[in-house]
Amino acid sequence: MSPVTAMYVAQAIHGLTYGMLLFLVASGLTLIFGMMGILNLAHASFFMLSAYFCYQVVAWTDSFWMALILAPLGTGLIGVFVERFLLRKVQQYNLGHIGDLLLTLGIALVIAEGVKTIWGTESHQVVIPPSLEGLVSVAGLEYPIYRLFIIGLAAAILSALAFILYKTRLGMIIRAAVSDADMVSALGINMPRVFMFVFGVGTIMAGVAGVAAAPMLTVFPGLADQIGLDAFVVVVVGGFGSLFGAVVVSLFLGELNAFGIQFIPRLAPVLVFLFMALVLSFKPMGFFGERDD
Amino acid sequence: MIKSKRNLALWVVFLAAAGIAPHVLGIVKTNVLVELAGFVLYAVSLNLLLSYTGVLSFGHALFYGVGAYTTALLLYHVEGFPVIGALLLSGLAAGVIGLILSPLLVRVTGTAFAMLTLAFGQLMFILCLKFREVTGGEDGIAGYDVPNLNIPGIASFDMLDPTVFYYFALAVCVIGVLIMWYITKTPLGQVVVGIRDNTLRVDYLGYKVPQTKAIVFAVSGFFAGIAGSLFALFQGIVSTDGVLHIMVSFYPIMAILIGGIGTFFGPILGSGILIVLEDLIMRYTERAELITGLLFIGVVLYAPGGLLWLWRGLMAKLFGSKSQPASEEVEA
């Protein structure tokens, strides 16, 4: 393989890795938004919180695999608590979207400052487990195993999610609720419980992404910034509530990011927002959006 | 008649209190008041969008930052540029940006509006960060002199004197707020409220909805730019983190929410509470944002209309007046 092709392939896999992480964060965000009409500004904060939990669990038990299970669950519990006791209360007031946005913004602030208070402002290293360390040779190209592991993990979760959404009764209810939650509720389904479930699963997925990202990006207070903003772009551009849109746009943004850094490093971060501004200006509902809000 | 007499008395008390404040409070607290004056102007300008037009902007720092950078660049490159000129040009620059963006902004409402403004705010943040030759990047622009405020033939004021600057900031703030208040009372202001409550109906009545909104964006941007300019004049340094960071967009939203959404004077109350509280908290802990965040959650949960509505509700209960708290008034 010529060096140029090798560079393109390596950059493409880099982009795929980030795109997959982004998908894990954005899919929860878009499902929550599609069903409940809540744009959860604290969603990326859960991603970061889980990375810190991962660091803590690894520090205690010395096992990354333990962290991969415990940290997302802990984060999911906090997410469920937030939904049950805070969001549900705000939804009763007639503040429209402003109430949800402001509440989740407040939660994001508290988490951002909370982790600084507990774990300090310096960045923490999480070591890659020995079994995932090192490089693997893919088609004549040396590539870190850990990044391939992230891609595999996210692909597995994507398949599981697609199976639940499209092949089970629960998935049918969730898809119905995305298009009209009131109607589903009128059919006698306990919507608050479904909301809580989706919110919990969404935060757990953000949590898994947080743990997966921890060894790669290190754990520090600004961890959520980029992926959080990118996840909003995915939700907005992909269409509020569309899982398919989230997959496509996440992968696209991952590649845009990777190749943007390669070719126009100075303007790479601008591309994402320029892309969102363009799409919003001409297709305010996003590419695959079904719901108009 | 009684009401206007009471209002007059309130104004006299306010101006007297504001007039003697720097002599009673000392320099440190006077500087807090200067900060407050700029912040009030900024919050009220955002409130034109949030409470009157009914759209939530997550990128108001864009206008604030443009204002601040305009002033800094003018004073840095043109020695002795008149202060008032810099102030007005900064507002104008921000207002023009508002006008330029308005064809895109008027197309969307609700969450899409919040996200679009967020995108523009972040775009400007990154651009200013990356184009170091012009903006100085992360370090920002510093070391420009603030010239004296000259009123030809009458007086010349030394802007580096904290007390003088306080009166200057106070004057800019009061004039700006009064102009915005006046605008909300004009027919244009009424049409804007109509657009918030029922866009379709206003459209059918023959009013030009996109153009009206564009004017509001420009006006709101103008005053946010003036507030940014005040910041640049006062701090003597303008950096991306200081004027364009996403938190700069969020702070006035907090002030509006704490004070009372859907009111004109609520944001002023909220700004006061936020700035004074922050000043107090900063003395005891570095984690000011933790407390503000908690306060914020508390307000959203327990006083969803803000403190002004809480107060009005209390008054209504005590004195049986008919003005009920109506937090439903604002819908995104």
From TrEMBL, chain A:
Record-level GO BP terms: amino acid transport
Keyword terms of this UniProt record: Amino-acid transport, Cell membrane, Membrane, Transmembrane, Transmembrane helix, Transport
Annotated membrane topology: Multi-pass membrane protein
Cellular component, GO annotation: plasma membrane
Compartments, record wording: Cell membrane
Claim: Cell membrane is one of the keywords in the record: yes
Transmembrane segments annotated in the record for this chain: 6-26, 38-58, 64-82, 94-112, 145-166, 194-220, 232-254, 263-282
Record InterPro entries: ABC_transp_permease (IPR001851), BCAA_transport_permease (IPR052157)
An MF annotation (GO) of this entry: transmembrane transporter activity
Keyword field contains Transmembrane: yes
Major site of localization recorded for this protein: membrane
Family of this protein: Belongs to the binding-protein-dependent transport system permease family. LivHM subfamily.
The protein, known as: Amino acid/amide ABC transporter membrane protein 1, HAAT family
Organism: Desulfatibacillum alkenivorans DSM 16219
TrEMBL record, chain B:
Record's keyword terms, sorted: Cell membrane, Membrane, Transmembrane, Transmembrane helix
Molecular functions per Gene Ontology: branched-chain amino acid transmembrane transporter activity
GO cellular component, one term: plasma membrane
InterPro entries, sorted: ABC_transp_permease, LivM-like
Location(s) in or outside the cell: Cell membrane
Membrane topology (UniProt): Multi-pass membrane protein
Highest taxon in the source lineage: Bacteria
Key word Ribonucleoprotein present: no
Membrane-crossing residue ranges in chain numbering: 36-54, 61-78, 84-106, 113-132, 164-183, 214-238, 250-277, 289-311
Pfam families recorded: BPD_transp_2
UniProt protein name: Amino acid/amide ABC transporter membrane protein 2, HAAT family
Annotated organism of origin: Desulfatibacillum alkenivorans DSM 16219
Lineage of origin: Bacteria, Pseudomonadati, Thermodesulfobacteriota, Desulfobacteria, Desulfobacterales
